[in-house]
Specification:
3 domains; Lambda Exonuclease, Chain A; alpha+beta; 5-stranded mixed beta sheet; 10 helices; disordered C terminus; globular; disordered N terminus
């Protein structure tokens, strides 16, 4: 694949909340940065606020729920002995995984007729579409030859300047020689080359955390696109991860300034068409709710320095 351009960098200094005076007391909550939340802030600072600080509810979508279903099946597939990881066995995992998901009323409501009179989507057809994505996985890998070290594994690290990075890796493979492979399942199609850098942002995040915690640079970052049965692979190097770390620090510094000034500005893009918060967004004539200072304090933001507005 085409080499990606280096990430822009900007040094920053972060202040870290002090620990509790009583060593037996539970550690205070403190903010952290995940790949999705970093992407939210880059896309739209106001979206980051609504999701991370206000924690406003968002509607579930059929695509997102299908993605959860497929991820669950592929995770549980590796509970089976290697020789039993077949397409038929994977399809048999769909029903129990769906039963677990459908316990959420917000999920089952997606298959009920809307008040507008529009017909409800067919659950059977939707499950068939999920099954096709599971089948596509077997065209990309042979799970009988893979023994993951971790699935849906939490990876986290506190950088030397105090920034806490956290995320969940779909699958982590470790070779006998210690080489690391980070694998992520995507239920959509592979992006065009111009959008590869954005697609790999999440994977570089994981690679950075693993490098900082294990001292090993991942040999391969692998995105499996089940929508079209294609794969995107990338091999980072240590210098690139150093630059990426600085990029995350710059994002975090911008988040800190936004919290301290309570100034989260919207950024109108084509992605706004899928946003649940247009009614509260100034770009669409809405007014955001008052900044939830108490919620921010409970999440650990109260210790941030006050930053003067420009």
């Amino acid at each position: 694949m085409t080499a990606l351009h280096p990430d822009p960098v900007s040094p920053t200094s972060l202040e870290v909340p002090e620990g509790p005076a009583d060593p037996s007391a539970p550690a205070p909550r403190r903010p952290s940065l995940s790949p999705s939340r970093a992407a939210d802030f880059k896309t739209c600072p106001l979206l980051y606020r609504f999701r991370t600080i206000d924690r406003l509810p968002e509607r579930k979508s059929l695509a997102a729920v299908r993605g959860t279903l497929v991820h669950t099946v592929l995770e549980k597939l590796y509970d089976l002995p290697a020789g039993e990881r077949t397409p038929d066995a994977a399809r048999e995992l769909l029903a129990p995984a769906w039963e677990e998901l459908s316990a959420d009323p917000a999920v089952t409501e997606l298959f009920q007729a809307a008040e507008t009179g529009e017909p409800a989507p067919s659950l059977d057809q939707w499950l068939v579409s999920a099954g096709k994505l599971v089948d596509a996985y077997f065209s990309l890998e042979d799970p009988t030859r893979i023994q993951p070290e971790g699935r849906e594994q939490l990876v986290e690290v506190t950088l030397p300047d105090g920034l806490l990075l956290r995320g969940f890796v779909d699958r982590l493979d470790v070779a006998r020689n210690g080489a690391l492979r980070v694998v992520d399942y995507k239920t959509g199609s592979m992006p065009r080359e111009a959008f590869e850098s954005k697609a790999l942002f999440q994977m570089k995040f994981y690679a950075l955390v693993l490098w900082r915690t294990r001292g090993v640079v991942a040999s391969q970052l692998k995105l499996l696109y089940l929508g079209d049965g294609d794969a995107l692979t990338y091999a980072p190097d240590e210098g690139e991860l150093v630059r990426f770390e600085r990029t995350l620090q710059a994002i975090w510094a911008a988040i800190e300034r936004a919290v301290a000034t309570q100034d989260f500005r919207p950024n109108r893009t084509r992605l706004c068409d899928w946003c649940d918060h247009q009614a509260l967004c100034p770009s669409f004539g809405g007014t955001p709710p008052p900044f939830p200072a108490e919620a921010a304090a409970a999440a650990g933001w109260a210790t941030l320095p006050i930053v003067e507005r420009d």
